Amino acid sequence: MLRIIIFCLLLAMPSLSPAGFVTVPAATGGDLSVKVKSLKELRFRTVIRQQYDFSCGSAALATLLAYHYEDKVSEQDVFKEMFEKGNQEKIRREGFSLLDIKNYLGSRGYRADGFRTSLDKLRSIGVPAIVLINHNGYRHFVVVKGISEREVLLGDPAAGLKRMARADFEPMWNGILFLIRNKKDVAQSTFNRSGEWSVQARAPLGVALSNTDLARVTFLLPGSNDF
């Protein structure tokens, strides 16, 4: 009797589809298998996920280059080069610094600097930036991918695309934006993309970066000719 009940339940279940597909009724009868993407996949479509507990800096940088500057690097490539050329003991203890990121970018022909300025200034320039946020005492690198009147669109190596109210973001942020100063035309074409804003990520900020030596990078207010 139990076997009969189980058999009937199986018959009542919708037909199974391969992973990444769902089965829906067709207008002409029968079923159609439709390819879909999970919310998790969508969140990381234009964000490179960090693979190590202290690698959010390399993942954020790889995200910036791969999805905003048409420079297809991987987190592993960035991590390896920054680790080999950096202070390895300090990196193991604290994670990558903005100086590590600056040196890596310089080796690839990018001019990059940190600027103490506002979100509105970045919004007017229209290019993405790497920022360091402090979430409950933990520091974590993310990419600012877009800014609206009330929200910030973040590329978080631990959580993927994430929309956050500016009122919530600004207390976590130290006011420093790390920007690439050349190749502005390429970066502007990938800032504030509507397709990224449409993905709502609700995951927490996730794995955090320990204290980073920001003092080694000179932060200047951008002048009128800098962009």
TrEMBL record:
Identify the residues that the record assigns to the Peptidase C39 domain, covering every copy: 50-180
An annotated GO cellular component of this protein is: membrane
Keyword terms, alphabetized: Signal
State one molecular function term (GO): peptidase activity
Q: Which residues form a coiled coil?
A: none
* Cited InterPro entries: Peptidase_C39 (IPR005074)
An example GO biological process term is: proteolysis
Record's CDD domains?
A: Peptidase_C39G
Give the signal peptide as a residue range, or say none if absent: 1-19
Q: Which domain of life is it from?
A: Bacteria
Q: What is this protein called?
A: Peptidase C39
What is the organism of origin for this protein? Geobacter metallireducens
